[in-house]
Amino acid sequence: MDNRENITWDNVLEGDGRGNSEAEDALAAGASVSGASAGEGSPLEAMAAGDWLSGLNEAQREAVTTTEGPVRVIAGAGTGKTRALAYRFAYLVNVLGILPGNILCATFTNKAAGEMRRRIRCLIGDDDTGLINTFHGFCVGVLQADGHALQLPKSFLVLDNGDIDAMLAVVYEERGLTLRDMTYADARDRIEMLKTRDRPDYYRDLLTFTADELRERYRAADTTEDIIFYGYLCQQKRAFGLDYNDLIILTLHLFDECPEVRRAWQERLEYVMVDEFQDIDGLQYRLMEVLAAHHGNLFVVGDPDQTIYSWRGADVRYLTEFAANFPGTRTIMMLENYRSVPAVVNVANSLIAKNRERIRKDLVPCREGAGPTVWYHGADSPAEAAWIAEGVRALSGAGVALGDIAVLYRAHYASRAVEEAFIREGIPHTVHSGVPFFARREVKDALSYLRFLTSKSELDFRRIANVPRRNLGRRRMAFLAEAAEREGTTLYEALCAHLDDDIFRGTGARAFVTLMESYAATYRERTVSELLDELVKKSGYEKMLRTEGAQERLDNLAELKQAVYEYEATCGEELSLEQYLAHVALLTAADEVETGGDKVRLMTIHAAKGLEFPHVFVSSLSEGVIPSRKTETRRQLEEERRLAFVALTRARDGLYLTEAEGFSHKGSPRFPSRFLLEIDPALLMRSPMPADYLAQAREAAALADMRLAEREAAAAFAVGDAVEHPVFGCGRVMGIDMTKRAYLVAFENLDTPRAISFKAPLAPRQA
């Protein structure tokens, strides 16, 4: 009998039916430690009272007090690494007497940097928290301080994806390109690839060419790639704008070109600490090497099992091979997990142990309690989603706040069925996708008004000149573009020069110029919050939104004002407009303001990294979803397994893994992810499934493994080799397609070449 849907929530919440419960109870009882205060959420009173080591476990204590030379900390999920980093900073300052300004702590998100600063303030009792920043934020500071050596203006703009798209829109319009030629997302990716790999000296053009010289190169470009690349560089030059890659590349170039600047920073930074080291890319690695070269005090923290960003340049080998690259490295293992109950830790350990390319370790659970840890199998996707909705209701009825529940998935499309079920059941929820807060139109508009005061860039002028409407539409902007081209000025300078021309009569051009000139001359005398409030009112922007009845956009504007006010309160009165704008430009999706209210959170696993929730559902755990059907190599498969591991380790108290039968959009049957099959069955309460169905799932995973092995097989022949085919006869290899795993062979007896699979019985031609 098929009882696949007989897991009831009464059973789940009571813990009935979980295998190996005696072993789990024993582990839970034996895993409790007196040092449980060493977890991330522990109080800091002991540190404030001067007892620097109480409350730390042995590994954390070693990490805090090992201060000299290269140190590598392998910190598993939930082991208190943020605590260790904060305590180490405080130890350096309060015990060793190191000046906070001589310590760099590099994090990967502004949110993480803010949390680190908050903790350190509690520990050292001082607002001076040194240089706790992202790599990109640190580079902004370096370039603002010393970029004049490269002829960079201090008021350069930091460009986000929205700014880059706006620049690309100008290029596309000027050269008649459409999104069929290349989408903006693809263009951004190609520009990044050119800057970081194919044209590593591009920055010399950006720095040494004038805007006119760059424009000539842009005009001479005849391929889509060159048109986009040089058009973008031209727009960057005109706006004095730098993107994220430029920030690190130009900082490294500055250090190469100006040894005295490099030496000054090296001497200042007596201690360099890097968080989330498993996510570091090549440019960040080079920067870290340079900064730590003088004193040699480099402290890195990371977890190879949580490397999930290789697609954007991260390489786990920077962490795993750290000791080989830095002789004398002291490696410290932090494995005591204070986040999750033993049942969750055991499930995560069971899965990640299947990876080969890792530093072998097991998390050690330090909490008491057990599960629940569940694998639910649905008859179809609606049944899976309905079970999740029922579970949310059951947990809520048991006293769990909705905000303590998260639903994670591999990609956004996998949220559809769950969203529909939640809407149908009236379950409050928020989806962490859509447009990030700082990328919303009204927020970008308001920030462009502020940014225009400091740079008067064309990028911001194009955005705000006719918002709200001032009769500066397409015809008048075209007039300004022609005038600016003819007179060698910017669009705004052209507007100022031609205000009295007939074409601008009856427009709001003069009022716009008067407003912006007035605030540009006095903005340094006002706080950022005052500037924002006054500009959105006096420009008419807020009135425009009220007239349109755009309440949601007004709410977002109010939220921006609140965000500015709170950031001012954090930084003090000395915060300048330029500093705030640089801070905002460096915010990423991981730094987003969390939606308030008691709602279930739905998000991708990537978005959930660094977060934790009492109860976590991981949905759509089907083969082809995770691991992705695009997985083509063993290394990619291991990264997919690490992604699943990250999802599992987000859960503190309850973990619910779900998948469903059905068919893919291509008509192939859907099977459970191999990652579910790899977890020790004794660790999960599992829906009964037909034996033949599980057998088919294992066969599908084995077949996928075989295809992986085939794709990774090395080519047996090189271009130019003479080969022999059992049917086509003798030929010569003309090319190799590693994607298709095929040779292009010209056979003597055939008029045209043939693509021959690596699997075909080709043999070396006999002499």
Structure description:
- By secondary structure, the chain is an alpha/beta fold.
- 48% of the residues lie in helices and 13% in strands.
- The protein has 33 helices and 22 strands.
- Strand 9, helix 18 and strand 10 (364-365) form a beta-alpha-beta unit.
- The chain is globular.
- Mean pLDDT is 86; it is low at 1-5, 16-37 and 40-49.
What layout of secondary structure does this protein have?
Blueprint: H1 9-14, H2 21-31, H3 45-48, H4 58-65, E1 71-75, H5 81-95, E2 103-107, H6 110-124, E3 131-134, H7 135-146, E4 157-158, H8 161-175, H9 184-198, H10 202-208, H11 211-220, H12 224-239, E5 241-242, H13 244-257, H14 259-268, E6 271-274, H15 282-291, E7 298-302, H16 317-320, H17 322-325, E8 330-334, E9 336-337, H18 342-352, E10 364-365, E11 373-378, H19 381-397, E12 405-409, H20 416-425, E13 429-431, H21 441-455, H22 458-464, H23 474-487, H24 491-497, H25 509-522, H26 528-538, H27 541-548, H28 551-571, H29 577-585, E14 600-604, H30 605-608, E15 613-618, H31 634-648, E16 651-660, H32 674-678, E17 685-686, H33 691-712, E18 722-725, E19 729-737, E20 742-747, E21 754-757, E22 763-764
Parallel strand pairs: 1-7, 1-8, 2-3, 2-6, 4-5, 6-7, 9-10, 11-16, 11-17, 12-14, 12-15, 13-14, 15-16
Antiparallel strand pairs: 18-19, 18-22, 19-20, 20-21
Helix pairs in contact: 4-5, 5-6, 7-13, 8-9, 8-12, 11-12, 13-14, 13-15, 18-31, 19-20, 21-22, 21-25, 21-26, 21-28, 23-24, 26-28
